[in-house]
Automatic annotation (TrEMBL):
<feature type="domain" description="RRM">
    <location>
        <begin position="37"/>
        <end position="115"/>
    </location>
</feature>
<keyword id="KW-0694">RNA-binding</keyword>
<dbReference type="InterPro" id="IPR052462">
    <property type="entry name" value="SLIRP/GR-RBP-like"/>
</dbReference>
<dbReference type="InterPro" id="IPR000504">
    <property type="entry name" value="RRM_dom"/>
</dbReference>
<dbReference type="InterPro" id="IPR012677">
    <property type="entry name" value="Nucleotide-bd_a/b_plait_sf"/>
</dbReference>
<dbReference type="InterPro" id="IPR035979">
    <property type="entry name" value="RBD_domain_sf"/>
</dbReference>
<feature type="region of interest" description="Disordered">
    <location>
        <begin position="121"/>
        <end position="142"/>
    </location>
</feature>
<protein>
    <recommendedName>
        <fullName>RRM domain-containing protein</fullName>
    </recommendedName>
</protein>
<dbReference type="GO" id="GO:0003723">
    <property type="term" value="F:RNA binding"/>
</dbReference>
<dbReference type="Pfam" id="PF00076">
    <property type="entry name" value="RRM_1"/>
</dbReference>
Length: 149
């Protein structure tokens, strides 16, 4: 009877489960789709929202994720966004139809996202060990001649 009154939260070693699983779900969804199904849309108006892009680009196929890149300090759009489709064919269709089109008064550019070399191996490489010494020849002392003339 006493154990049911205590509850699990009263134990010092118990930590309640973390309910913020959408981040993990989004990360796992990114891994399921090939990189060739991700496009970047450049030269967007700064007031463009993710919902607007979702509506405009959903005509070409099912969209997994729309991410507008924003400045970390001002939270203002940087004018480009990433759109992830479920298939490569949908991404290519969007690229062919929307590249160099007018979007809210601006000519947008649509391209496939390319894999960077450090993305293949995981995180960026870190330096390890002491810095390398340069092979700079040391100054050799020359014979000093005392000449006062």
């Amino acid at each position: 009877m006493e154990t049911s009154m205590l509850g699990l939260a009263s134990f010092p070693c118990y930590t309640p489960p973390n309910r913020s699983l959408p981040k993990f779900r989004i990360l796992s969804m990114r891994q399921q789709y090939p990189l060739a199904s991700k496009i970047v849309v450049k030269n967007l108006p700064y007031f463009t929202g993710e919902n607007t892009l979702q509506k405009e680009f959903s005509d070409f196929g099912k969209i997994v994720e729309v991410k507008i890149v924003k400045d970390a300090i001002t939270e203002r759009s940087k004018g480009f966004a990433y759109i992830q489709y479920t298939s490569q064919d949908d991404a290519m269709l969007a690229l062919e139809n929307m590249d160099q089109k007018s979007f809210h008064g601006r000519k947008i550019s649509v391209k496939l996202v390319k894999l960077r070399p450090y993305d293949m191996s995981g995180p960026s490489p870190r330096a390890s060990g002491p810095p390398k010494k340069w092979n700079i020849p040391e100054k050799q002392e020359e014979d000093v001649v005392d000449c006062w003339y």
